[in-house]
Amino acid sequence: MADPMYRRIADDLSRQIESGELSPGMPLKSEVELREEYGKDGTMVSRNTVRDAIKLLVSRGQVETRPGQGTFVLRKVQPFITRLTLDPKPGDVEDTVFKSEAERQGREIDDSRPRVEVQLADDIVARLELGKGAQVISRHQQRRIDGTPWSLQTTFYPMDLLQRGPDATRLLEATSIEEGAIGYLRTHLGIDQVGWRDTIIARLPTAQERAFFELSDKVQVAMFEFRRTGYEENGKPIRFTVTVYPADRNQFELQAGRVPSNE
Amino acid sequence: MADPMYRRIADDLSRQIESGELSPGMPLKSEVELREEYGKDGTMVSRNTVRDAIKLLVSRGQVETRPGQGTFVLRKVQPFITRLTLDPKPGDVEDTVFKSEAERQGREIDDSRPRVEVQLADDIVARLELGKGAQVISRHQQRRIDGTPWSLQTTFYPMDLLQRGPDATRLLEATSIEEGAIGYLRTHLGIDQVGWRDTIIARLPTAQERAFFELSDKVQVAMFEFRRTGYEENGKPIRFTVTVYPADRNQFELQAGRVPSNE
DNA sequence: AACGATTTGTTCGTATGTATC
DNA sequence: TGATACATACGAACAAATCGT
To answer: Are B259 and A231 a contacting pair at CB < 8 A?
Structure first.
């Protein structure tokens, strides 16, 4: 009797889900039925106790509650696998690699028109090794694959990139750069991204991310956050990109050394 | 008035924590005080509403409640950064790389004695491209860094590796292989891991993982899961490793191309 | 050691709103 | 439209942990 009632109920339901006794998409018993099931000798457990148990399952991401319908066991979706490439060849830039990878998997990518802003953000400025108070250009884009919201990306450029050439102001325009940002920097501004460093983080989504990715308020899904700093030849950072992917529909792949091809 | 009361309270407290107005270790106001603070015109918010707000903060890992004492702001832990190496050189094997990296950061690594089992697991067998019903050797290890539980790792080997040489049975012994598993395979069995493929997943922890990583039931933390298949020269998989890291204390770093050194 | 005050934990109840069928 | 089920908000009682007197 160590565990409180609501946790015992949660654990029991949890076990049924893990064992497959309750399969994805199936509704749990209604609150009233659960109150009866876990009450002893014909008595009923309190409604709130049952609800506390269900809250626990929801917070574990095992079930989803739908108002007016019931509580349902969640299913796992088929994840999109992004292959992290390791050698940035000049003709094989990030965006292109990503797109061809998606096409290889027969999926359709749809990028939103970027939202462009000029910002004063000291944490970003530090990443780009600029002076305190410096301004940065931010380009924010949403990506959908087969209509499903897939990733949110914000790229920051130092403001002084605009001095590098007459075409640089295009960075300020809210139009997609079709050829890919890295290719654009190289062909129009003569800026070559010769390498990058990623920091990979996993965390829970923010409220805004929940909204875009159509995650219910209550469902707990992990998020990948990639923070990529791109460097040019002289070792100076030229862009800082933060990309967020919901982990329920995204996985990443990494190869090293000699590995047989995938299929 | 879009957001419900309990979330407005949670967001307000959350903001105070993020801004540093409430610093780590400090107690929040007591439930009674919060009921007064967020009630209008001398009225009090319901105790349960305040408690719902605090529950939200607890689930985000921002605060911790201690019975009889109060609710306290948690501090963020300094994450351990693992650099994902991309070129497996013969003398520079995985384990060694990892350990020197830890030492570079001035941390102390403590690996448990491995738990070794012989298993019949079809999903693993498929990864190792063995026939259905084949047996695999599993070696399970726990890793702590500076006393804090840091990762759980299980490595699977095909059972027929035991035929490769007289020393192979050491894989069945519950002793750490000090030189690192990959080095052991090479020097004692002549098996060279020439490459690997990782699949990187983010998800929520299981009950067992919560227990080992000392995560409270109420805190929501994401987990990294790395699934690494190692291949030998002829392209056959020789090991399959699953490693789980809690994302609140682990990050990963990845470099490509020419990048300035870290500091 | 004993007690009371304070604080959080758990369980019960009620009421009202909203979404779905 | 009514019935059902979940979401939010409130109130109350008792338990358990902690701390100071």
So the answer is: yes
Distance between CA atoms of B155 and B124, rounded to whole angstroms? Answer: 10
Positions of chain C reached by protein Cβ under 7 A: 6-14, 17-21
| pLDDT tens profile A141-187 | 998 888 888 899 999 999 888 888 777 777 787 676 666 778 788 88
Q: For nucleotide D11, give the residue with the nearest CA to its C1'.
A: B46
Contacts of A202 in chain B (CB under 8 A): 202, 222-224, 247
Domains and CATH numbers, chain B: 5-73 (1.10.10.10), 80-254 (3.40.1410.10)
Residue type, B128: L
Residue A246: its pLDDT value, please?
93
SS3 B136: strand
How confident is the model at residue A254, as a pLDDT? 87
Q: Is the CB of A65 under 7 A from strand D?
A: yes
Chain A 41-80 residues whose Cβ is under 7 Å from strand C: 44-49, 52, 66-69
| B237-246 vs B223-232, strand pairing mode | antiparallel
Per residue in A31-43, pLDDT (tens digit) is: 777 887 777 666 6
Please, what is the end-to-end C-alpha distance for chain A in angstroms?
52
Longest C-alpha distance within chain B, in Å? 82
Name the nearest CA neighbour of B115 among B162, B172, B182, B178. B172
Does A6 contact strand C, using a CB cutoff of 7 Å? yes
The answer, as to whether pTM is greater than 0.85, is no
Instruction: State how far the Cα of B84 lies from the Cα of A199, in Å rounded to an integer.
Output: 10
